[in-house]
Design goal:
Blueprint (H helix, E strand, L loop, with lengths): L1 H17 L6 E4 L3 H13 L3 E7 L6 H5 L2 E6 L10 H11 L3 E3 L9 H9 L3 E2 L4 H8 L1 H11 L14 H11 L3 E5 L8 E4 L5 H16 L4 E5 L5 E9 L5 E13 L2 E7 L6 H17 L4 E10 L4 E8 L6 H8 L3 H9 L16 E8 L1 E2 L5 E2 L2 E2 L2 E3 L7 E5 L6 E2 L6 E9 L2 H14 L1 E3 L5 H8 L2 H5 L6 H6 L7
Parallel strand pairs: 1-2, 1-4, 2-3, 4-5
Antiparallel strand pairs: 6-7, 6-8, 9-10, 9-12, 10-11, 11-14, 12-13, 14-21, 15-16, 17-20, 18-22, 19-21
């Protein structure tokens, strides 16, 4: 404790000498590995941390690592991690000056960001106004068109009738995707392959959207499938500086959930990287974005064209691969930006070096349709040693994984001089990983990176579900 206090005093004095503002205490409104990641970044910046936890997370690592911890409710997320009043009360009670929401839970909740502002606590993320703008699919699409960012061919606004839908589909071409204008969580979404199926699909999706969101309006896009799922990391401060940190390829997905990510994408060359990165910067500049964010694109390799899909107004699960290839600590930048500092790097400083990959380790059973596998970890060995290997996790021997939350328990991230070097390092790391007491997807991940298509980088958003899994030996 004495050494920590000394470190804090030294860092504080250094910031004062530099004339830079910084928080003294922040609250982390999250759990699991991202909460641990934020606590570590804050501690290295000399900032005290407050953890919030549910009754199920009393012995969780983020609860144990933080300087203070406050119980905010029972295991159910809606009564704890999604309880805005409880989170804010904990912040006020402990004197936290800012709240870092991580990802998931309240991270993209504009109401929560507004509530933080109302009680004088800084929300480490963009403004509520920007969150609302980019969270609305139709308004975001209009904004991107205005900013000169390519968008997927589709409707210009909300579609209210099946007759309108038929006309638009004839114009943009099949297959099309119907999506609820006010949608989320997979509600009000239908893929339509041919005209004779459109009317029934529209009416079904619209009714579902009306029941779920109180709004039956739809919008339409042409289906770009298969494609590469490419996302670009951006950072922006309050002084108008916006930069991108290159791209991540997140095409390996199961049921639209990312399984493995890498940076840079083998499908993106220097010229296209500049084009897609510049488009992401324009997108952020056009809405006055501040803090870290990610612009997601679909890339049609056959046509060489990319299209805006959505923006994530928070830190991403896969941010470590970008940190490895750029040397930029994204979480620290988030905190510094929120404290009023300028970006510590310029676009000219960003050079993509080597290749990085991330495998998500989940407590799930691939042999039983990836069913969650909560329980007590009786033995744990996380891979270590060597240059370019990082494991982000919140588990430890004897820890009991609760059944109430996401099944991801660790992320293995590697960095190599090139893609082959990264693949070999990931293979070595997965071989070393030992988690007893619960079933994980580690062997599945090892089989995936050993697949000839993945080794060659020859995959898209259809590969995992349509090629790899049907032939995967689950015995």
């Amino acid at each position: 404790m004495a050494s920590l206090q000394l470190q804090e005093r030294l860092l504080l004095q250094l910031e004062i000498k530099k004339g830079l503002s910084m928080f003294r205490k922040i609250l982390i409104a999250n759990r699991g590995e991202i909460a641990v990641r934020i606590i570590r970044a804050a501690r290295e910046l000399g900032i005290e941390t407050v953890a919030v936890y549910s009754t199920a997370d009393k012995e969780a690592l983020h609860t144990l690592l933080a300087d203070e911890a406050v119980c905010i409710g029972p295991a159910k997320s809606t009564e704890s991690y999604l309880n805005m009043s409880a989170v804010l009360s904990a912040a006020v009670l402990t004197g936290a000056e800012a709240i870092h929401p991580g990802f998931g839970f309240l991270s993209e909740n504009s109401k929560f960001a507004t509530m933080c502002e109302e009680v004088g606590i800084k929300f480490i993320g963009p403004s509520a106004k920007v969150m609302d703008l980019m969270g609305d699919k139709i308004n975001a699409r209009k904004q991107m068109i205005k900013a000169g960012v390519p968008v997927i061919p589709g409707s210009d606004g909300e579609v209210y009738t099946s007759e309108e839908a038929l006309e638009i589909a004839d114009r943009i071409g099949y297959p099309v995707m119907l999506k609820a204008s006010a949608g989320g969580g997979g509600k009000g979404i239908r893929k339509v392959e041919k005209p004779e199926d459109l009317v029934a699909a529209f009416e079904s999706a619209s009714s579902e959207a009306q029941a779920a969101f109180g709004n039956g309006a739809m919008y339409m896009e042409r289906v770009i499938y298969p494609a590469r799922h490419i996302e670009v990391q951006i950072l922006a401060d309050q002084y108008g500086h916006v930069i991108h940190l290159g791209e991540r390829d997140c095409s390996l997905q199961r049921n639209n959930q990312k399984v493995l990510e890498e940076s840079p994408s083998i499908a993106i060359g220097k010229t296209l990287r500049h084009r897609i990165g510049s488009a992401a910067v324009r997108a952020a500049e056009s809405v006055g974005y501040e803090n870290a964010g990610t612009i997601e694109f679909l890339y049609d390799e056959g046509k060489g064209e990319f299209y805006f899909m959505e923006m994530n107004t928070r830190v991403q699960v896969e941010h470590p691969v970008t940190e490895f290839v750029t040397g930029v600590d994204i979480v620290k930048e988030q905190i510094k930006i929120a404290a009023g500092q300028e970006l510590s790097v310029t676009q000219e400083d960003i050079v993509i070096k080597g290749h990085a990959m991330e495998c998500r380790i989940n407590a799930e059973n691939p042999s039983f349709n990836f069913a969650p596998s909560p329980g007590k970890i009786t033995n744990l060995y996380l891979p270590s040693g060597g240059v370019g290997l990082r494991v982000d996790s919140a588990v430890y021997p004897g820890y009991t994984i609760p059944p109430y939350y996401d099944s991801m328990i660790a992320k293995i991230i590697v960095h190599g001089e090139n893609r082959f070097d990264a693949l070999m390092k990931m293979q070595r790391a997965l071989y070393e990983l030992e988690i007893d007491g619960v079933t994980t997807n580690s062997h599945f991940q090892l089989d995936l990176i050993s697949d000839s298509h993945v080794i060659a980088g020859d995959y898209d958003t259809a590969f995992l579900m349509e090629q790899f899994l049907p032939n995967y030996n689950k015995e």
